[in-house]
Structure formats: C-alpha cells, structure tokens
Amino acid sequence: MRAWGRELLASVLVNSIYEMKNYPVVLLNTVLSPLSFLIVITFVSKGQLIGEAIEGGFIMSMFQSGMSLQGDLSHLKNDFKLQDMVVSSPTTPSAYVTGMALAEVIYSIPALAVLTVLAAIYIHPGVVQSLELLGVFLLMFLGSVAMGFTLSTFSSDIVQSFAFSRLISTVFSTLPPVYYPITYIPLPFRYAAYLSPTTYAGEIAQNSTGLIQLSTTDIFSAWTILIAVSLALLLIAVKKARWRDI
User: At what angle do helices 127-154 and 158-173 cross, to 10 degrees?
Assistant: First the structure.
C-alpha cells in the first residue's frame, strides 16, 4: 500500500507539480476553457442561464481533465519512453494511470475553485444535490480518463494525440447541451444530442438543482446510460489498451 502511494505521488510530481511550478502559464488553459463558455452563455442569455452555464463548466472541466491524459501520456510515452520504464518496473497500470489522472485534476483546481464559488453564490446546492452533482462529474471524469488512456496507448505522435484530445473534448463538452437546457435545441436535431453521454450528465445536473424538471423515468434512464457508458469505457481501457506490447 505504501509503495502504491509512492507511485501515485511520483505520477503527480511528473505530470502536474513540475509543470505548474516551472510553467505557470499552463494553468491558463484549464481556467479559460470552461469559464469562457460560461461567460458567453451568461451574457447571451442575459444571466438567465448562469446556473446551467456553471454546471456546464464543471462538466467541461472534468471531461477535459480526463481527455488531457491522452496528450500527456502520449508525450511521456513517445518522447521520454517513460511507459517503457514503467512497464519494466513493479508499477501496475492502475497505479500509473490513477496517479496521472489525479495530476490532471490538480491542474483543474483553479477552474474548479472558481466554479465552486459561483455555484455557491448562484445555485445554492444542498448536501444531497451536491452529492448528486459530484457523482455526475466523477462519472464524466472516469469515462474520459478511460478514453484518454486507451487512445494514448495507440498513439505514436504527440501532435496526433493533442489533435484527437481537443477534437473529442470539443465534440463532447461544447456541442451537446451542457451549458444550456436541451429544450433550446430544435426537436429534429435534439435526438442527435442524446448520442453524447455529456447530454445525460447535463440533464441530471440541471434537474438536480431545479433548473429543469424531468420525470423519474427520465432521470433513471439518464443515470443508467451515464453509468453504463462510463463502465463500458473503463472495460475497453482494461481489455484493449496496449500496455505491454508497444
């Protein structure tokens, strides 16, 4: 257990603390991405969608944190051959990926701190609501971490990895209705939004804080789909990720 803790700490130091200390500018991206969309949505809606925008910022931050793992792992694997050293050591894939994922969350702390303050001011979630929101954000993070890890093991070039990471983050965290209610999408196109798991995350979060009203059946379906997608991505990461044969 103590060795596993040291492995986690080493991953955090390599993937976040070192860069944050020596290159503080890297924190700007993690702060500006979710908050920029929040500001735009708030201004355009004249403040009416600030609650949805705050929750969308959380979803985007957590999803982008997980997907950022793809670029970072690919960089360390291809440019520094770190994964080759990890594979030949007693370190397990779970310890390595957990530590690297934790490092991505540390990167997002400034944005999450700002969003938490805004949520306390404008949304006022209770204990049960906060736990429900935390569950949604955690599922988003776990699913994106699994996706990012799997893709990083197949990637052979850092430019390719960053391109896919940004593309997937944009498709899943800005196009679906996470910063606004799904009712804002015209009905013929609304069904396409349900192809993204972040749509269900947005609906659960918005319903939890009273921003929209969904039936018990719809909420149960949203939770079921979100959990199923997250578990499926984790299973794919376990079964298909190329850990030792690269």
Answer: 150
Domain count, the chain: 1
Name the residue with higher pLDDT: 141 or 244: 141
Residue 54 in tokens: 């705050």
Tokens of 171: 């498709």
Tokens of 168: 């997937």
- Residue 246 counted as domain residue: no
**Distance from C-alpha of 206 to C-alpha of 180, rounded to nearest angstrom:** 9
What is the structure's pLDDT at 209? Answer: 94
185: in domain: yes
Q: Report the candidate in 193, 186, 189, 223 with the shortest Cα–Cα distance to residue 207.
A: 223
Is-contact 121 45, C-beta < 8 A?
A: no
Range of the domain at 234: 2-240
C-alpha span between 87 and 188 (Å, rounded)? 49
Whole-number pLDDT of residue 71:
75
CA 121, 123, 124, 125 torsion-angle sign: negative
